[in-house]
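In response to reviewer comment 3 from the previous cycle, which asked for concrete evidence that the modeling workflow produces usable outputs, we include below a single protein chain processed end to end. The sequence was submitted unchanged, and the resulting structure tokens are shown without manual editing.
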Amino acid sequence: MSSPETTSAAPRSGLVVLALFLVYVVWGSTYLGIHLALESGLPPLSVISGTRFVIAGGVLYGLLRWRGVAAPTRAQWPTLAVMGLCLLFFGNGMVVLAERDVSSGLAAVAVASVPLWMALFSAFRGEKVTRGEWLGIAIGFAGVLWLNAGSSLTATPLGLVLLLIAPLGWAAGSIWSRGRDLPSPFMTAAGQMLCGGVILVAVGLLRGERLHGLPNLQGVLSVGYLTVFGSIIAFTAYVWLLHNVRPVLASSYAYVNPVIAVALGVWIAQERFSVSDLGAMAVILAGVVVITLARLRRA
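The workflow returned the following structure tokens.
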């Protein structure tokens, strides 16, 4: 989603801190939430990912319509469907599938490469890329290569492939959507979640995913947390930040979420990371920081 203009009135610092906390910690914790939901035996695409977005998108859509926000037009729905396919089916669904074999922390580290892919796709579209941004891309992709070739991901080839597809899908959908005819930001989020959720549920059912009995309490709480906090509250906080602070600050979640995810994975799920894993994460995040600073200087 493109970054809208910030408002002229400065927001209260307390609200900014709260919104950043939600985006940093809640989004960073969703990787652990996925891990716990998978651990409880819930189907990955149809329930953990798909049902989450159908419910979240439906609730957000209903609230927005109740408040008088215009619904997407007939011409806008196909665009929202493509965004749902790229960002949610590929971007989120592949992460959920990967976490069957890969730790939640490593999944978050791989997804941290999204800004690198977005910068590269922007260059392919003919947008001007500064030398600082190219430096950040080079540093970040060195970390991606390190992660894919020298970390514990090499022990799970399928997980490696899925975690390459996920950031590619998210970045491609984000760049493709720029300049498209879209509804308001919150309605775009709602429509995107509805479309992406339906695609995820359909594909999950087609691949034979079924619920075998009632889910346990851990599974229900995990999906509930992903739906309410990950998809509604944190996303709302992110959109609010885009409207009220500099885009660079709003997008800083990209290099905070992996750190939160790794810390929670070690603390709660007893995940273990090698020196190579942590080194690759540090290089990827360094590339993202360099790109962010280069864009800030250009702005």
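The CA atoms of residues 74 and 83 lie 15 Å apart. We consider this sufficient to address the reviewer's concern, and the full set will be provided in the supplementary archive.
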